[in-house]
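Pasting as-is:
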Amino acid sequence: MDGAGKTGLRYPWSEPPEEGAAIEVADGVLWMRLPLPMKLDHVNVYALDDGDGWTVIDTGFNSRRTRAIWTALMAGPLAGKPVARVVVTHHHPDHMGLAGWFQRDHGAELVTTRTAWLFARMLTLDEQGEWPAETLAYYRSAGMDREVYDKRAAQRPFNFSDVVAPMPLGFTRVKQGDVIAMGGRDWDVHMGSGHAPEHATFWSRDDNLVLSGDQILSTISPNIGVYATEPQADPLAEWLESCERLSHLAREDQLALGGHKLPFTGLPHRMGQLIENHHGALRRLLDHLDRPKTAAECFAPLFKRRIGEGEYGLALVESVAHLNHLFHQGLVTRERRTEDGAWLFQRKVG
């Protein structure tokens, strides 16, 4: 086991499972990892032994490679028992991608939040051959770099259905305050928000396990973004409220099983880090807004590193989220720039 080091966190496993393999992290609980074709190149999934079948937590993208890995997992580490139930923590495609495949091809029950199901179902049906005018206007309002904008506008837009299997009608809802039985344990259901609306987390009543999805991760902060669907949203307020509320459930001995990176203990410390990371970013951002700036001009104080092309989109929506939060708090003003419609934010004086 790695030592606590400077972070106050402990990592019982220093390496993830190999592709097609599983690590038993607790009695009847398997940790597996699936590839993603992006900078964050993996998603963690889990299988909980229900006796005559498995409950799977999250699914990975819908791709030929991922389906082949799941087929090998079901024949190997899952011991030939069926996946009877799929529990999806939130609607993002790396988590919901194969839910419909498990339902349609394997007869599994889908369990998720109402918001996650509605978002995923809506987005899989909303195929766009060209960029919606609202999305392009949103990019301009955020001050997207012209070269990046022109390149994006010339390409086919990403569609949710590119990596998410068609979703048949029907799911089982899980909501705040529920108790769900999985893997021989009873789990309290607590909702987070900010990274994704109505994001389900599961806290075992019988031992020290927490299935945290992307709401709580060990070494990265989940992306908090604003999109063209709700350009005036304040997801950071929802994120901070969720972190404060969930932090009261955290214990030092709990093993957090997240959607990315390594499982860890030291949850109270990590919750404090996540909260302070964003408060610190907001303080730096306010100092940066001594003169009017667009969201695209605020990467440096927020991320404290160079943002490459592969990270630009996520950085932009997170920058908007932080600026919207300051605006809703009444700490900054904003004005439209006439030549391109970009919002210019500036710290209030006095």
